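To assess whether ligand presence alters the predicted conformation, the chain was also submitted together with MU-OXO-diiron. Input:
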Amino acid sequence: MIEVKPGIFWVGAIDWNVRNFHGYLTQRGTTYNSYLILDDLIALVDTVKESFFPEMMRRIEEVIDPGSIDLVVVNHIEPDHAGAIARLRRKIGNAEFIVSERGVEGLKRYHGGDLNLFTIKEKPSVSLGRRSLQFLATPMLHWPDSMITYIQEERLLLSNDAFGQHLATSERFDDEADLSVVMREAAKYYANIVMPYWKVVLRVLESLSNLEIEMIAPSHGVIWRKHPDRIVEAYRRWAEGASEERVVIVYDTMWGSTELIARAIEEGAVSEGVMVQAHRLSMSHYSDVVADILEAKAILVGSPALNATLFPTVAAFLAYLKGLRPRNKFAAAFGSYGWGGGAKKDAEEELRRAGFEVIESDLHFQFKPSTEELSKATAFGVEIARRVKKNSPTKG
Ligand code: FEO
């Protein structure tokens, strides 16, 4: 059994095999973290995905009789955390459930309608005996119902999705795991799930600054035991829209022409000493691409024309990007065509709709780009790199 703090146990589950989390590529799997708190009253904070109910119960039973649980805190009703409730409630008699006001309807519809339910308006905090649980609503971090639970006596924040990572590991704490991997997965998680809600993040960070926090235990990935400040500072940086001297080139190619342009732009940017990350969309997953975009200063999108508009992979990527609304970056488009253009113009329109400042380019070449046209692309890469250097590092 894993004791997070004396009398507080991790009773979650490790999902080694999940590779697609509602569209997000989870190459490293994930965990669903559930926490059991023993006091005069016994509380369970968050559960697990329904299929992992037996694993959670086995861990709970190593510590206590599940029938002795008095209280279940539902920080978030999404099924990866609340999915086991319907089965759990059959084992725990008339335990109380605590949820945010915005979570009531969804909790009933997803997980059953006759729970012994209290909202955090009715019970903003609950004394377990030696410790109290305080509930803080964090609507739109990242669902309307989202909330976090704070235990002042332990200086422990049970933060649900916030500060989490999709990372399956037998290591439960940040000081046991490879921190570079943990931070990469935290950044990917932020980019794909939290990024549109940066204003909420800044507000929540402001609220948290009034709390003493020694440990942050999210509901995915490792627990921040040694480096809680590191993830809080990273969230601040990401929410403020900080960026680095880095360019992401994201493109697809039909017969290689758009790829030649991408390579030429890359050569120009690199010659100015700016780091470039390139993704061909038929090879890279969009959730990995946006993780690279998170702290990049510029995004260059390339598409061949297909039926006088965007190549399907590029169109899908731009639709995804628009929903995430990255900020404080500039963008440009390039492309190739055979008989009719359209892709570059459409990419520029989509990038504007996504909120980017779009730098116009004339990188729109028929059939195969000539040597002269590739030189133009290289020169454009130089121009972009110079803009990046002029504008970085920045905070929005
Ligand atoms: Fe991990 Fe929003 O659920």
